[in-house]
Each structure stands twice: as C-alpha cells, then as structure tokens.
Design brief:
The chain is mainly alpha-helical. It is built from six helices and no strands. The chain starts with a helix and ends with a helix. The model has no long low-confidence stretch (mean pLDDT 78).
Length: 172
C-alpha cells in the first residue's frame, strides 16, 4: 500500500511540476526553417473554387454526428438500466428507446451548433421530438413492435428536419 502511495505522489509531482514546464518550454523553441520565405505557388482559378453542392453542409453533418453520439449513448444507458430479471427482448427494447431519445435530443443540438447558434433551437427540438413520437406511435401499431428499428427510421428524418428548421430560422 505504501508503494502505491509513493508512486502516486511521484506521479503527482511529475504531473504538476515537470510536465507543465516542459510543455511551456516547447512553445518558445524557434522553428528550424523560420527564416525561409514561403514559396508562391501558381494556382489556377478553378482549383480554389469549391462547389457548395458537394457533400453535407455543416448544419446537417453536425446534427448527424451528434445524433450518432446520442444514439450510442442512449442505447448504452437504456440497455444498462435493465434489471437482472429483464429478458433479451426487454433489454433490446430499452436500448432502442434510449437510442431514439438520445438521438432526438442531440440531433437538434448538433444542428444548432453547426449553424453557429443562429437558428431556433427550441423549434428544432420540438420538430425532432414530434418525429420521434410519431416513430414510436408507428412502432406501437405494428404487431411485432420493432422499437429498436425506430432510431434508424426517425434519425435521418430528424437530421433533415433539424437542419431545415435551423436554416429557415437563422437570424443574423
């Protein structure tokens, strides 16, 4: 036990005293090639131009990324909340519910962050909540109750809706 305490004390001293001084010292090192001038490279006019039609925009991609994080976190929390007497289908139900709720919460937040906070977060959250509840209602009507599949159905719709709402409610 004393060995662990002394090792912890040594790590603490190294972490508090030695590492910050070394990191700070690296900030003052002059680069080797600092005296060289950057070379001017001739660029064609069309190489710098980028089309706005390519790929996802920042609002949608940020909402998608946060939705994936929310779905994974929600599935882990929902599956972890199951009791020991819960069957596999019960754990799957809880994990699917958690994933849907997590994605529904974080998709509008990600879209709002991707829009640099200019849109209406409350309206975006309200829209994605309605889509998520409609997905749960649809799953309740189907006889096999595929709750786990709802996140795959509603998340793309929520990303599109959240990004559209964020863009349309953007204020300067």
């Amino acid at each position: 036990m004393n060995g662990r305490r002394s090792f912890s004390a040594i790590l603490f001293v190294v972490g508090v005293c030695v590492i910050p001084s070394q990191v700070r010292a690296q900030a003052f090192v002059k680069p080797v090639f600092s005296r060289l001038e950057p070379a001017a490279a001739p660029l064609a006019r069309d190489t710098v131009k980028q089309s706005t039609e390519e790929g996802l925009d920042a609002v949608s991609s940020s909402g998608l990324f946060m939705g994936v994080l929310g779905a994974l976190g929600g599935a882990a929390i929902g599956g972890g909340q199951s009791s020991s007497s819960c069957t596999k289908s019960c754990r799957s139900h809880n994990a699917g519910s958690g994933a849907t709720i997590g994605a529904g919460v974080l998709i509008p937040l990600g879209a709002h962050i991707g829009n640099k906070g200019k849109g209406n977060l409350l309206l975006s959250s309200l829209g994605t909540t309605v889509v998520g509840l409609a997905g749960f209602g649809l799953a309740s009507v189907i006889p096999s109750r595929p709750i786990g599949a709802i996140v795959f159905l509603t998340a793309p719709l929520q990303v599109v809706l959240a990004s559209k709402v964020e863009k349309s409610t953007t204020h300067q």
